[in-house]
Amino acid sequence: MAEIQGGGGGGHKKGGKVRSKKTSTRIDMTPMVDLAFLLLTFFILTTTLSKPQTMEITMPEKLKKEDVQTEVNEKKVLTCVLGSDDKVYWYIGITEPQAKKADFSKDGIRKVLLQKNAEIREMIVLIKASDESKYKNMVDILDEMTICNIKRYAIVDITSADKDIVKEASQI
Amino acid sequence: MSKVKMHRSTPSIDMTPMVDLAFLLVTFFMLTATATPDEPVQVSIPSSVSDIPIPERDMITIGISKDNKVFFNVDGQFTRAEMLRNIGQAYNISFTPEEEHDFAVMASFGIPIGSLKEFLSMPREQRKELVQPGIPCDSLHNELGDWVNQARIASRNRARIAIKGDGDATYPVVKKVINTFLDRKVNRFNLITGDEKAPAEMAPKKSS
Whole-angstrom Cα distance, residue B80 to residue A17? Predict the structure, then answer.
């Protein structure tokens, strides 16, 4: 319906005066505006507003045989074992550890980490992900490290002893 | 010219400002929109409070899908073409220029090197349909490591490495990927995560 409203092009004479009637150059812009809004809607709907972020992680180099590992006081070590079903088991020390179950909610592992971080000076957190844990759990626990401002943590392989501890704790 | 002059005032509003604004917005969205290439799998990334933006270029992205398949992607067409050439040399496969071009404009892929040539010779629609098996990254047969190596060489060591994993991917496959990195002395890498609001108890960052 793009029409140019000419306003009656043929100028009719009246009273002898020659009056060249100005044709108004008004174009119906409705289709153009329609299209503009269509495009606008399309682009608004297709743009993704939140760009993904990234977290940086640095892993230690793989140990060579001749490397000597530094020893730390076991009382300063908190181990988090990531288990199945979004659960995390944590304990302090290595000798006869008492594993407790927690989850990734606000009052879960974060409370523990904040509390222990205040209690223990230079706390070291070992993150051990079991085979049943999800990638999401790993990201979550790394996130908790950032949130609780824990500087010293490491992702290490799970041992069979850890698996037993978790098995025991999960039955409670 | 009607005789009865019932001058009906048409209820028309001046829409010029609105249209102006609409066009402004259209232009804005058009310019900011980036065409995302088709990904072979949908990956729903977990969220974190981290707020480091992803570099726009020179990224090696390792995708891990929900069903634990590994995908590989690197930015930059020239990097990709060079990488493919080098990989082809290492594995004694020669790619035609067309295949190279197709590969350069492709998104991430999860095809073992052995069947890559076959995959590239397929028509585009068929490629989209195909369920990609993922890149092998076992310790015995680790093609992912070769891809990472070649991508780093092709990008003149500028590339940063990131893992874009699905939240539901299980840890063993993540571990395999990380071990692949560590074996190649890549100790720093990124995890791509979504946005999340930082909780109130988060310790304030030190501005040092």
Answer: 77
